[in-house]
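FIELD: query
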Amino acid sequence: MDKKLDMEETNKKSQVKRIFDSISHRYDFLNHFLSAGVDLYWRKKAVKLTGMNKNSTLLDIACGTGDFAITAKKSGVEKIFGADLSFNMLSLFAHKADWINGKIVESVAEHLPFKDNSFTNITIAFGVRNFYDIPQAFRTFHRILGKEGKVTVLEFRLPKNKLIKSFYLFYFNNILPLIGRMISNDKEAYTYLPESVGEFDQKIDLVSIFKECGFKKTERHSLTLGLTQVVIAQK
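FIELD: result
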């Protein structure tokens, strides 16, 4: 691997791990508070759009404290695994989900320690923009998914409506970092969030990358005035 790319990868992993380890104790509260609770609806809608059920075997990647996995559990999914780079997040997930019928592993999305064709579904909520190599991660997803398996990505995006976009950017760049710093005591974490969302939305087309990585069918759904997107890719 190129030394410059290797250094960028290491730096990205270190930054993401430090940030989420640091804010883990306030992560759930801030998610619900800063989104006015709408994040609960987004996860529930994403699970419904995917069509998971009791026969699904789910891997929740960048699982954090497990809110997406818990939503899937409430929808009937019984076999659930989790993976995240942050040890502190995983510890909270394990505490919240003592019912989990699967493993919780500390791992990056690009190199997951699972066998081929292990899962029917993969979910990622607000985590893809933290990957250091999105195509590599998606190729790994393709490998570990079974036939017709699905990846469901829930992610922020910039609204197309100019008025909504201006309010959105003001909130993300001014209000959210201020509240995040006050509650979490981590200055970097809640400046990294709006910066990463803006950069991600301008540079990354999830549908195109999924197709390039071998997924045969993709669909995109816009939620809450275009504030978030659900992208579902099928193997």
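FIELD: remark
The chain has a mean pLDDT of 88.
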